[in-house]
Amino acid sequence: MMRLADERGGAVAKLLGILLVLAVCASAAVYVYGKNQQPLAIDEVHVATSDGQRAPATVGVAPGRAVYVATIVRNDGRLPVTLEGLAPATSPTDAYVPVSIELGDGKTPKPANGAFAPPSLDPGTGIGVVVTYAINPNLECGHFGDTASDPTPFPALPLRLSSYGVDTTQTIALDHGAPTVSGVTKNACERATP
Known about the structure:
The protein is of the alpha+beta class. It is built from 2 helices and 12 strands, in the order H-E-E-E-E-E-E-E-E-E-E-E-E-H. Strands 1, 2, 4, 6 and 8 form a 5-stranded antiparallel beta sheet that branches. Strands 7-5-10-11 form a 4-stranded antiparallel beta sheet.
């Protein structure tokens, strides 16, 4: 019978110890990379509103209005990722917040009312999504005055993703094709928020 630490210096024990240390280091590296990676990017966005506007340059704040954004989400990273859904939107000054995400063709800004099944994206691949934005229910109307505020960029897209079991979030600015949010007054904010 062979013992791990015999008179030959325990070569098997040393080898197993080294392999264990290497496995722990590799796991730690994947975890740190997975937590800190920002691999997602988007293509041009296509926008429509619930009141029938197509590709508007600006959207205003109105009761019950929704804005639909279609785009392709790409994995430009080195590892495969799973797109898990939307991350919580946290800004109390953004007039619109994302409320749902669905799979789509990336060009048609019309939700199909389908369930979201988290897709896996290999490096260099992408998938079409449709994101529905609605009036921010936590919008701080006291932040606005009687005169319209300056127009603001359309809010970014906060996404949840995972890679090899490591969950993280990434916020992607909607740069190409997104409308601006027209100036908001305190009165318009109070009428629009639920």
